Amino acid sequence: MANRVLLGNRSTGGYGLYISESGENVLTCNKSKLLFYTDSGETGSSFVTKGMHQAVPFSGGTGSNAPVTKNTVNLSSASTASLSYQNLGSNNFLYTAKNYQSNANTSSFEQGANFTSVGSTGATINRLGTGQSYDVVVFKKLSSDALY
Amino acid sequence: MANRVLLGNRSTGGYGVYVSKANSNVLTCDDKDLLLSSNAKVSGAMPVYAGGSQSSLSSSLNFLTTSSKDNLGYIPLVIATENENRVWNWGAKEDGAADIQLNQNNVSCFTYTSSTITPSQINAFPANNPSGVTDGRRTSSSDYGANTGGTQACTGLEFVVLKMPCAFGHMSGYY
To answer: How confident is the model at residue B48 (pLDDT cuts 50, 70, 90)?
Structure first.
């Protein structure tokens, strides 16, 4: 059976964690055959992955405390609210999705939310139109670049 | 070169497997500088292939251009958020005429290929909707005239491209 997992120094790629496809020797295979590879600033056609998609917990996530990665924010009356989450670095973006109301009356109608002042430990959620509660998740970006 | 990989007892976190970011010492760095920590209870199972931040986007954006990434060969799952994250409805009741009701369950709509993300719209009025979703966004007065809702231009876009195939069984560029 081929070597599938390497935690150490790979001849191509250096120190890191590598996992290869079934039947591929993780020590020597082409990068295109790696399922996972910790980023080393690689460039070119052998690019494999940039890192791992990660949610930032609002609380918990250490010791015996399970992470709380969803926060329900009530914007039924208030137009904005402050959010606080743990510091896993400065590059975050916030996501909310909801089954919005569908209510076409005799005038325009909107409902939703977006985010401003996104930092390493907090952000502001802004209500758009008619209020309701919103479930919010914080995701890590891997860079502040326009494209990465 | 910094220590990047630790299989053992970390002063913060205890025994486990740890991999740090480039130039960060895995033995002493903050948790935020770890690419992988078996002690963290935060899930991180999905590899990120690409991503980006755009103050605005009005046409197709090729997310493979940075580092000249290979095309994955499938349409990947993209998680995107923007300022226009809202429902938009508009209606009018005219005496002696049929009611007009226009509904978009979420303005924040995109089309994807294996290499691009493009802001798109659902033309709410059936007669204008022969092809379902079309590229582009409503302007303040497009399609239905003024006073039917403001611009729906895509601004404040954040997205990540995950190595997870979508549209299984439809891996070509056609649906």
So the answer is: confident
